[in-house]
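Technical annex, item 7. During the second reporting period the consortium partners agreed on a shared format for inverse folding records so that results from different sites could be compared directly. Each record opens with the tokenized structure and is followed by the designed sequence. A conforming record, contributed by the partner at site C, is shown below for reference.
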């Protein structure tokens, strides 16, 4: 849509104008409601975004996109427990949609609710299969959260060749590998993992810190 095109180019006023025109024609259309929500969220107008979510939930309570929008709003309102509740209720209504289960697992990991992460992972494996690289990433993060560094490293090494088509996932894998190598005392490998990130993104602060830590641990403080 034109609104999405404007947003991708950083033209929020243009996107807002396009959404307003769409809302005049079809105010209750789910695409229009989602576009309005995204604009309000980008503008940090959380009260207006909440109003859109309420309307959308009344009409499309089992639409996984609407459920994710409601959870995203709760996160922006610094209410992660509420976001988790929204996603869990949404899964009961809409079924184990992968997008909902992924968002739930990610949030549970951030909140260190590791036993609940296992349940979300089981849902994902049932719908996508255990060989999906995104599931492998979540498994590695769960192992890291449990400080199981060697199994996490081994999992990431298996996932890495499967995500080369995605620069973002490749960066995440390398950063996580760097953490594992650091905890295992493998400083040369830690440096290499972080240098791979810096090769694609020289501005990455996490990779610079990781590389500097590896060099210092290797006796190269300069």
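Designed sequence (site C submission):
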């Amino acid at each position: 849509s034109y609104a999405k095109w404007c947003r991708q180019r950083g033209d929020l006023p243009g996107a807002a104008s396009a959404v307003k025109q769409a809302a005049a024609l079809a105010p209750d259309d789910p695409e229009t409601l989602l576009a309005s929500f995204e604009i309000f969220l980008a503008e940090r107008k959380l009260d207006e975004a909440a109003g859109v979510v309420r309307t959308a939930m009344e009409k499309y309570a089992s639409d996984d996109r609407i459920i994710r929008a409601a959870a995203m709003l709760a996160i922006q309102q610094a209410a992660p427990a509420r976001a988790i509740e929204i996603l869990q209720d949404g899964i009961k209504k809409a079924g184990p949609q992968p997008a909902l289960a992924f968002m739930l697992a990610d949030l549970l990991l951030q909140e260190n609710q590791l036993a609940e992460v296992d349940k979300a992972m089981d849902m994902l494996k049932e719908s996508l299969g255990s060989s999906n690289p995104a599931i492998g990433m979540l498994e590695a993060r769960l192992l890291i959260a449990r400080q199981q560094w060697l199994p996490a490293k081994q999992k990431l090494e298996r996932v890495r060749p499967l995500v080369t088509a995605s620069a973002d996932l490749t960066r995440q894998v390398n950063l996580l590998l760097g953490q594992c190598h650091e905890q295992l005392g493998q400083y040369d490998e830690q440096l290499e993992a972080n240098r791979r990130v810096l090769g694609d993104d020289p501005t990455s602060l996490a990779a610079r810190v990781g590389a500097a830590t590896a060099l210092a641990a290797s006796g190269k403080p300069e």
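The two ends are 52 Å apart (CA to CA). The chain has a mean pLDDT of 88. All partners now use this format for quarterly exchanges.
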